[in-house]
Automatic annotation (TrEMBL):
The keyword Kinase applies. It holds the Pfam family PEP-utilisers_N. Coiled coil: none annotated. Keywords: Kinase, Magnesium, Metal-binding, Transferase. Residues 249-507 form the PEP-utilising enzyme C-terminal domain. Its cofactor is Mg(2+). It comes from the Bacteria. InterPro entries: PEP-util_enz_mobile_dom, PEP-utilizing_PTS_enzyme, PEP_util_AS, PEP_util_C, Phosphohistidine_dom_sf, PTS_EIN, PtsI_HPr-bd_sf, Pyrv/PenolPyrv_kinase-like_dom. Belongs to the PEP-utilizing enzyme family. This is Phosphoenolpyruvate-protein phosphotransferase. Transmembrane segments: none annotated. Residues 1-10 have a biased composition (Gly residues). Residues 164-233 form the PEP-utilising enzyme mobile domain.
Amino acid sequence: MTDRAAGGGDRAGREPAGAERRLRGLAASPGVAAGAAWRVGTVEHAAHSGDAAAELARARAALKRAGDELTALADRLRADGAAEQADIVETGVLMAADPALDAAVEASIARGSPAPQAIIEATDQLADTLAAIDDPMLALRADDVRSLGRRAASERVAPSGPGPFVLVAQDLGPADVAELDERVAGIALAAGGPSAHAAVIARGLGLPMVVGVGAPLLELADGTPLAVDGDRGDAVVDPRDPPPARRRAAAVASGPAVTRDGLRVRILANAAGPAEVRVALAAGAEGVGLLRTELAFLDAAAWPDEAAHRRMLEPVLALLAGRTATVRVLDFGGDKTPPFLRDTTARGIALLLDHPGALAAQLQAIGTADGVRVLLPLVRDAADVEAVRAHTQAPLGAMIETAAAAARADEIAAVSDFLSIGTNDLTADVLGTDRFAPGTVATHDPRVLARIAAVAHAAQAHGRVLEVCGEAASDPRMIPLLVGLGVGELSVGAARVAATHAAVRALEGAAQLARTALAAKDAGGGAATR
Ligand SMILES: C=C(OP(=O)(O)O)C(=O)O
């Protein structure tokens, strides 16, 4: 069964009560939270037990649990004003109880499949049947049934009880974090990295998170008092002075962000859906500088069509109501690869340009309303931007995320309406590091700063707005350097909006600081300019 029990059951037998223990990890999302540890794990998918009735009961329980999870998620979406999305999620609830699905699961178990495999086989079979009928609505249902199957077969366990909980896991995906409810006060991961998308989402939701804590974390029994310190990067077992259980409330910024010496910087937000946009606007964001549309489709079984994009976009655009809405077209690839693209190596805009129908469908859904602009991920050269230009009248921005693209910043700026530096990927590419591995993100390294400066120079030469939307945009060490290099827009996690705003307003002499940093010979010199 689930590895929730793997912690050994009675924690009193292993830890003297009240003995505080600090496990070192890495800070992934700021803030401090405490609650009862709750382990989420992937289940060991044991082979067929030999007892078909037991396997069938296990499969039915898994489908029921998946249906219950989707009901809870739909309720939350409805409360968030996303009624249409809630309706979609609820179709999964009906499917989970569908007698035809139950019969297919039973048949698969009779053929010798263990419960999780039987669920996948049955849902895939039903999805294939739906997809074979030439009807776009049924094709969407096929996606839904496949995603239901994966959810049920993975046997994730949602915490039960009022909370607050600190979620403990080996690793989590971005969607897992996005759907956490208010009972979860913080997250501690044994693995993971501060730049992974799960961490990006946690920061957006203002959910304290530490990653890379290591195996001892997974030995904690459910219910162990646990604090996460997302500022220092610690998980504290049996904390002596538990911090307040709930996540830190975001402060509110007001008025435009202008440095003391008069540089105006627009503070925008990174978001994946309406919940983060709401938090960001309430904290004083002027709009969205990066909407990560791909995160809504990580479970997709095929390229989303125009209707699916519209359903994803409408609640976000409604909240923004004409403010800046920077919609990034699907940035699939790497850790954001849906099952149907598993064998694909292309990423970002290159992948979309290989599938022009998929790109056109999304651009059509994005439209050209006031405030809307389109962002292209992993642009390689001017030709990428020009190829997209043929499909839309919306302003086009190019993301500069590789050293190669930075070297071509001038030709890219010439054909773009604005540029946006993805410092997470750019830093990893320039330094040859893995952004998803535990470790610090060294965007302040002069080799990275030199690329940022080159892009800033190109943007300036062509009169283009320059945005930074990677994590560096909210890093207090980087904000002075970025502003000093001429960055006009900082797009940050919703929970960082107010702090970024305050950091900009406190700034003076940024341009001189940036010159000093660029002159530094190594990362240590760069850090010394902080
Ligand atoms: C903002 C970026 O893109 P992603 O969504 O991949 O983090 C980045 O790489 O800095």
